Amino acid sequence: MRTSHVKFYQTGTFTVGNRLLSETERSVQSTLERTNALNSGHRACQGCGEALGARYAIDAAMRATNNQLIAANATGCLEVFSTPYPETSWQVPWIHSLFGNAAAVATGVAAALRVKGRTDTRVVAQGGDGGTTDIGFGCLSGMFERNDDVLYICYDNEAYMNTGVQRSSATPPTARTATTQAVGPEPGNVFGQGKNVPLIAMAHEIPYVATASVADVRDLEAKVTKAMSMHGARYIHILVPCPLGWGSAPHDTVKLARLATESGLFPVFEAERGEITDRRTIRKQVPVEEYLRLQRRFAHLFKPVLQVDVIARLQAAADRNIRRFGLHGQGEL
Amino acid sequence: MLKQIEGSRAVAEAVALCRPEVICAYPITPQTHIVENLGQMVKAGEVDNCEFINVESEFAALSVAIGASATGARAYTATASQGLLFMAEAVYNASGLGLPIVMTIGNRAIGAPINIWNDQQDSMSMRDAGWIQLYAETNQDAVDLHIQATRLAEELSVPVMVCVDGFILTHAYERVDIPTQEQVDAFVPAFEPRQLLDPAEPVTIGAMVGPEAFTEVRYLAHYRQMQALWLIPELAEEYEQQFGRSTGGLLRSYRSDDAETLVIALGSVNGTIKDVVDKLRDEGTAIGSVSITSFRPFPAKRLREVVGQARRVVVIEKSLAVGIGGIVSTDVRMALAGAGLPVYTVVAGLGGRAITQASLREALLKAHRDVLERLTFLDLRHDVIHREIERLETQRRSGPVAENILRQLGSVADHIG
Amino acid sequence: MFQVRIHGRGGQGVVTAAEMLSIAGFLEGKHTQAFPSFGSERMGAPVMAFCRIDDKEIRLREPVMAPDALIIQDTTLLHQVNLFEGVSDHGYVLINSTRSMSELGLDDYFAEHPHIRVLGVPASQLALEHVGRPLPNAALLGGFAALTGMIRFESVAAAIEEKFKGKIAAGNIAAARAAFEMVNAAAQGAIA
After folding, report:
1. Which of A317, A319, B279, C101 has its C-alpha lying 20 to 30 A from B305's C-alpha?
2. Which ipTM score applies to this complex?
3. What would the pLDDT profile of A243-267 be if each residue is shown by its tens digit?
4. By residue range, what is the domain housing residue C168?
5. C185 contact B CB<8A
6. Where are the domains of chain B?
7. What backbone torsions phi and psi does residue A277 show, to the nearest 5 degrees?
8. Residues C89-106: pLDDT tens digits?
C-alpha cells in the first residue's frame, strides 16, 4: 500500500498487518464502517476470487465516495451469484442490464447524474473478462474514448466461468477450458492469441489504468481509492482466481493470485494518460511452474509427460513481462 | 407555430420540447437528420440541461439510455433498420426493466440485400419486444405522437417507439404546427420515475428471475402495456383539447361507416390510401380505410368496432413475414376471429418501392370483387422472379440473387416509380 | 394539385430546390410537400426530387409520376434517364442549358408533344456569375416562377433566404431574379 511508509510483514506473507498501522492507514475492510457492498449470503463458490475482489473494490469505492455510489454490472458470475431473485447482496444502488453493455449503462448513469446536478454521486461499472474483453469491448472502448466519468472494473478469471468455463480473449495459452480442451497436438488454449486490455485501455490515454490482484487487497483498495479521486474514464483490471474454472483448491485463491504476480505472468502496474507511472516490483521471482502446478487447467503440462518446452514458453512470457514492465525494480519505468 | 420544415427537423423540435435530459446519438439513414438536429440544438444551448452523447453503436445508444433512465433522467434515442436489430437485445431489456425511454424509428428495410429505403420490417421485427409502438401518418402526427409518447411512457413506465416512415416522412418538407414550450410543459410533467438508482435508497435493478416468478414478471409487462389501450385514447383526447389537433387515439377510420371493403394500414401510406378511397367512393365503391396508430398494444376491440358490417378487409403491409405472409394481417385476423371476413394481405412498398394510387386502386378493386389473391405482392415483377427461379433451377452455382436481379434491371434512377 | 419533378445530379442542390419551392408555396399560404427520390448521398449520381403544391392538405405520398412541370438541372441526364416519363401534355419543362432544343436532341420529343411549354435557362452560368459556383437550383426556381406563374418571385427569394445566409443568399436571389427576368422576357418575346 502506497500510503504506508513503514512496512511490516507477517511471517510467510507479504500482507501488511492492520494492527501495526495507524488507524488512518488501515484497510477499508478493517474499519467498523465498512459497507459490505457485496453482503454475505450470496451464492458464489467457495474461494471465489471475484467475490473477494468485488467486495474490496466496491467497499473501497463506497468509502472514497462517502457511499454516494451507483454500480452497473455486466451479466456474468458476479451478477448471477449476487442477485438470485428475490434476494440481493448489493448494498449499493445496482443495475444489471446486459452482458455487453455495462460500460454504456454506466455512461448513461453518469450522464443522468450530471444533468441532475448530483456531482457527489459517482459511478462504477463492473464485469468479468468475457463481459469486458470480449462482448463488452465495444461499449468499453466507447466509454474510454469519450472519457466518460466512470470507473470500470474488470474481474479477470481468464474464462467464461458462468457458462461453464469457456475460453475468452483473456484465457492464457495452454489453459484448458471447455472450448480449448486438453487434447490433440497442442492441448489447451493456443499461443499467440488473446488481448491485453489494460494496455489497450492505456492506448485510449484515459486518466487512469491499473492492474491489481486479490493477492494484495491493500494495493487493490489503494488503487480504487485513487481512481475515485479522479474524474473521467478509469479502468482497473483485477486478477481473480476461480477455483471452479482453474481446477484449484478454494483455499489457494489468494496464493494463486500471488504466484501469478510474483512469477511475472500477471504484471501489476499503474498508468496515467497512457504512461506507466508505477508497478509492483517482484521481490523474489517464482518459476511459473509453481503457479501452473496448482491448477488442473494446466495439468496436461505435467502429466502424463512433463512438457518442458511448453512450460519454457510460458516462463519466457513471464520473463518478458518482467522486462517490459520493469518488475525487477530496476531501470526506468 | 406553422412551419414548412423537414420531418426530421419537426421530430427533433418535438423531442426538444419534451425536455429530454439524455440523448444518445448514432447515425443511421434515414434517422440521422433527427439526431443531427437535436445535437445542434443541444450544443447551441437551446435545450436546457441536456446531455447529448455520441455513442459507438446503436447497442450502446440504447444502453446509455437505459442507464440514464434508471437514474431518473428522461432519455431519448432514435434509430432505424439494422440499427434497431443491432440494439435488439437492449430493446427487450429496456422494456423488461420497465424504463420509459422514447425512441424514434425512421422506418427502413432490413438487409440483406442492403437497402436504405422505407418499409416497416424494422419496427415489425421488434413488435413483441414489450415496447408500445405508435405509427405516424404525417409529420404533424410524428410531432404530436412524440409529445404524447413521452407522457405515455412515463405514466406506464413502459418504453415507446414512435415509428415514422423513413424518407417518405423523415425527409419530406411539409407544413407542421410546432407547439410552444408552454403548451408542451403543460401536457408533459416532469419525469417521476417508478424506480431509481439512488444511494439514499439503494435498489437492485435487473436481478435474475427464475421459473418461480418469470411468468408473473412477463404477465405484468403485458398488463402494463394493455393499460395503454385506454391511456392512449385518453391522452389523445386531452391533447386534442389542449392543442386543437386530433391524433385519433388507437386508430383512425376514414369513410368506414358503410364500407363493404375496409383497407387497413400503418403509417404514411394511409395518405395515399385516402386519396384512392375518395376516388373509388366517387365511382360508387363502398370502401373505407383504417389507419392503425397503436400497433402495440394492438387495438383489437376498437378494430372490431370499426370493421362493423364490412364484408372484407384488406391489409396493406410494408413488411413481410417470410414463410407465412403478413405480419399486421395476422393480428387483424386474430382481432376479427369469428367474424368470418376474408382478410386480404397486400405486401407493398418493400425496400422503398413506391406505393402508387394506380396499383392500390387495382388491388382494392379486385379485393372488392373478392378476386384478389389472399396474399398479394403489389407490383411484383413476375418476369424478373420467373427468370431468377429458372436460373436457380437450372444452375447449381447460380450466384447471388440480388446481384442477378440488379443486372437485369439496371440502376434505380432509371425509373420514376 | 400542381406537381413538379426536378432532375439533376448529387451535389447540384436538387433536393434543396424542391425544398425551397415548397417553402415558397408555404409562404403564400399553400399546402406544399417536397421530398427527394431517396438515394445514398453521392456526388454525381442521378437524383430526383419532387414538390406538390395545392390549396388543401396533401395526403398523397407516391413519387410524382405525372408532373405538371419538369425541371432539368443537368442535360447530361437527358438521354440516360427517362426524364420525360409521365409529363403532362400541357405541362412545363425548364432546362438548365444555353443550347437549343435541337442541339439537345429534343426536337422529336417536343414535336410529339406540341402543347408542352419548354424553355432553356442558363442557370449554371447565372449561378457562376452571381454566386461564384455553378449551382443552378435557385436560378431555375426563378425561371420556374416566371414560366409557370405558380409562385411569386418574392416567395422564391424568401425561400432562398430561409435556406441560405448572407452573401450566398443574396447571390442566389440575384441569380434567381436574372433567370426570372430572362424567362419573362422570353415569354413576352414569344407573345410578340
Report:
1. B279
2. 0.95
3. 999 999 999 999 999 999 999 999 9
4. 2-191
5. no
6. 2-243, 251-377, 383-414
7. -110, -20
8. 999 999 999 999 999 999
